[in-house]
Structure formats: C-alpha cells, structure tokens
Amino acid sequence: MSTPQIRVAFVDDEPRTLRAFQWEFGEHFHIKTFLEGSELLTALDAGEQFDVLISDQRMPGMTGDEVLKEVSKRYPPIRRLVMTAYADVGPLQICVNEAGIDGYLEKPWDPDEVRDFIVKAHGRLLQARSRELRRIAAGNDRWSSIQKSRISGVAQMCEALGFNSTVQTSFYQALELSAFFRPFDWSDLLLIDSSSEQELILDFLSSIESLMLLGSKFNDPCRRALFYWWMLLKACPEGQGSSFFKQCHANGTIFLSFDAGAPFGDSIFDPCGDRDPKTIRRNALLLLVIQELQPLGGSLLLVPDNARFKGDLLMGPESGRATWAM
C-alpha cells in the first residue's frame, strides 16, 4: 500500500512563483496553490484539508504572518512555514510567537531544504496527532472507570432502599437522554479521587432520604409521584413558566405534558459536570419519580432534545410496571 502524499498549501501573490513551486515539488507532494490568504481561508472553511502550509511574507492584503496567525487560530493542527526574500525580523518574530511556525524558508528557495522542511513539519504533525489520540484514549478510559464506579454506587444505594433493578435502568436511561455532558480533558478527570467519589454518593443518598421524608405525608404512590415530579420541574432551569406543566384527565388516566425549558441539568455520572446540591437534588427527584410511577403502570416519555427537557407523563388506572419510550 502506497503512503499518502503530504498535502501542502502554498500562498504567494506571484503567479509565476506559484507555477514554479507546483512544478518543483508537485512530484513529491500533493500541492495546491493560492494567490492570497483569503483564498486559502475560503478553501479551508469549505472543507479543504492540508498537512503543511507555506506562505510568502510580503503580500498585498493579508501578509504572511497574518495568514499564519489566522490559520493557527482556526485550524491549529496544520503545520506552518513562512517564506521570505527579506530579513523581516519583526514579522518572523510574530510568526514564531503568535502563529507557532515550524520554521522559515528563504527566497530563492533551495529545493532540498524545502523538501526537508516539509517532511519534518509533517513528522511533527503526526507526532501531535499520536499524542492527541493517546490523550483522548486515556481520558475515555478514566471517564468510563468513573462512570462505572458511580453506577455501582447508585445500584448499591437503590438496593439498600428497596428500589428494584428496572427503576435503576430507567433512571440511567433518563440521565443519559436528558443530562448535559460537558467536554473533558484527561487531566481534569485525574483530579477526581476516591474520597470525593464516596462523598458524592453519600450526598445523593442523603438527598433521596430527605425527599422521601417530604413525600411520606402523601398516602399513595400517585400523589407522591406527582409531588416529586412537580418539585423536579420547578427545579429545572426555566421551569417557573406557566406552560411547563399541563394536565388533563380522561377515562381515569392522568396525562401531564411538561416542558422545563432549558436542559434538565448535569448527571451525577458526568465526571466533569457540576456536583452541587441542585444537581444532586434533581437527580434524586428523577429517581423517586420513576420509583413511584412503576407500580402505577405509569410511563415517562422523554423527547431526546439537547436544547430542552420535555415529554409526557402518563398514569393509568391499570396496575403494572411502567414502560419507557425513548
């Protein structure tokens, strides 16, 4: 299998220079040339991909250092080189400090030097990609380990409280569907230690127990489910609106339509999410809603919408376990 050619973008305001560059290096690399920096940026925005960018320094419109700085901000993986026929120390310093260039080339160019610079710059690109893949893999492994630990902790807690496994499963599904998961960095995940994990589970247990005491004044699961559900929606962002909680009765069936507005909130299974009392309380309320609904044959239908937390809550007169529609 042949090795893919290195993709090189070359920017220069002289058409003859562009033709000469294409002729000189087109046999060794995949070359695409541009008369000005704006043309290059348009191509990148349209989806063109390059491994190495070489830009002339002195050009009308965007100068070379301006082009490289903009590419550095918008497409940082691309390796960057600047070419100049002058001893422009100032712009070269800008390129080094702000555009993070890999080096600079002089005009007229030495073909062997140009080829060597491109190959070495591409090598640094491959090394950076490899480091990023290892970083992502390490973060995913750590994330998975933390989530498994928290799921295990919640499972043990539910068993101690007498909540069955179907309640736990529905709870996990609801959090995965509705909670907002933040992007993470592996170094953030490594800051989470076992003591804070244990503290989180204990706080969650404490919230559930306190909410169960509040609901104990209602003498049947239906009333407790409605009470917990009302508290949950009031706790959701934008849940104070008049239209977030509508209800009707038909043939003994209670139909509730809800729209809490903003996202439901962080999940306790999200290592980088907020672990404040509000998040823990919302998660605890959701678990209790599911626990009270299932013996009633009720169902909670959630709409998978990253922008809003909405759905329908149905409770019928028939007994049996709740069903979930995702």
Describe this structure in words.
This protein is of the alpha/beta class. It contains ten helices and ten strands. Strands 2-1-3-4-5 form a five-stranded parallel beta sheet, with helices on both faces. Helix 3 (64-74) links the parallel strand 3 (52-56) and strand 4. Helix 3 runs parallel beside helix 4.
Radius of gyration: 30 Å
What's the helix count? 10
What letter string, H or E per element, gives the SSE order? EHEHEHEHEHHHHHEEHEEE
C-alpha termini separation: 45 Å
Report the structural category: alpha/beta
In spatial order, strands of the major sheet run 2-1-3-4-5
Q: Low-confidence stretches at least 5 residues in length (pLDDT < 50)?
A: 319-326
Helix fraction by DSSP (H/I, runs of at least 4): 40-55%
Beta-sheet strand percentage? Answer: 15-25%
What does the main sheet amount to?
A: 5 strands, parallel
Could you tell me the mean pLDDT? Answer: 80
- Total strands: the figure is 10
What oligomeric state best describes the polypeptide chains here?
Answer: single chain
Global geometry:
elongated
